Amino acid sequence: MDERTGWSRAQPWVSLVVRLGLAGIFLVAGGLKVTDLAANGRAVNAYQIMSYDAAMVVGAIQPFVEIVVGLLLLLGLATRLAAWLSAGMMVAFIAGISSAWARGLNIDCGCFSKGGQLPPGVTPNYLPEIFRDVAFLAMAIFLIIYPVSRFSLDARLDRPFSAGLPADDDVLEEESESSEHTAPRRERA
Question: Which domain of life is it from (predicted)?
Fold first, then answer.
């Protein structure tokens, strides 16, 4: 008889859905920006938080960071680290959008677009963007707490937490039992 609770059986599947959802978000966001790094730099500069040169550097690096985080999440590799990076980016995005709103800036956030100044007469609607990013932050926090998920490289490499915490043996054993050809498990210290 299976001694695990309903949650312990469902959690790896829920984590899979959250992990893939967050991966898609970062892959799309980074993919849309990587084709025009200068425009992304201008979008970062529109927030008026840092110097123009710093904004251009951040704008050039940001899409690649988003893509790398998205790929890590997609593969389920270093899931907890990727979730921490996701959470950090979401906090920065929420702070940036909130700052723009509080200072009365008339900009497009640039999250899934080229961003920058809005044309005259167009009013930004920051609240839905903040709520969206809070939801993405909640997804990242969920993965920080529950990084073990189905179909992840972390589980295959016997290191689902990748941040020094013990692995969920039930998930790993169940996945290894479902595979016909598995390598012997390494002993943990």
Answer: Bacteria
